[in-house]
Write a structure and sequence with these properties.
The chain has one domain. The chain is 79% helix and 0% strand. It is globular and about 45 Å long. InterPro entries: Yip1_dom. It holds the Pfam family Yip1.
Length: 190
């Protein structure tokens, strides 16, 4: 597939309407590993820039810290997601590989940037619908992630995959809270 604007736009639309098919197409492209990593880095950079614009438009001070810190934070979150999707899926009998997971998570984040741009436009035109767009984006994210995991690992039950995602998020949040507490970084700590 030639990665011109029309093809990328068509793949974004396909991802939003038939995400499992879009994931299958991405997997069938046999994109080289270095291109997958480059795509991942580009998505991180775009996420940080769009996130900063969004925060500034909401009247906040912007990121607390440097853009480099936010890029490292975003990279850590997305790489954590890659490891979790790949590792948990494999532990449950899935067949996805790390490079495929990296590519699909990067693409999913790229598609979610569309929602971030819509949120920015709403802040400028109709700030009252910002919250609604956030809820719609979360629903789309969970739906697309469920379908991507099904395509990646060969799972057939969307309900089982969705429940697995929810339990995984809660499990990782608990582990993270415990680790942060052990390091003395718990919220509201003295």
């Amino acid at each position: 597939m030639n990665l011109n604007a029309a093809n990328v736009s068509a793949l974004v639309r396909l991802t939003m309407t038939r995400p499992r098919e879009a994931a299958g197409r991405l997997l069938d492209m046999n994109i080289p590993d270095d291109a997958r990593w480059l795509g991942f880095v580009i998505v991180v950079v775009l996420s940080v820039i769009i996130g900063q614009i969004s925060v500034l438009l909401m009247g906040e001070e912007g990121f607390q810290g440097s853009m480099l810190f936010m890029a490292m934070f975003q990279t850590s979150i997305l790489l954590g997601m890659v490891v979790a999707v790949q590792g948990i899926g494999r532990a449950l009998g899935g067949s996805g590989t790390f490079p495929d997971t990296l590519m699909l998570v990067a693409w999913l984040q790229f598609v979610m940037l569309v929602f971030q741009l819509i949120q920015i436009v709403s802040l400028l035109i109709l700030p009252g619908i910002f919250g609604l767009i956030t809820i719609v984006a979360l629903v789309f994210f969970m739906w697309m992630l469920t379908n991507f995991i099904m395509a990646l690992h060969g799972f057939v039950s969307p309900i089982k995959v969705f429940v697995g995602i929810i339990f995984s998020f809660f499990g990782m949040a608990i582990v993270l809270a415990i680790l942060l507490g052990m390091m003395g970084l718990a919220p509201g700590g003295v």
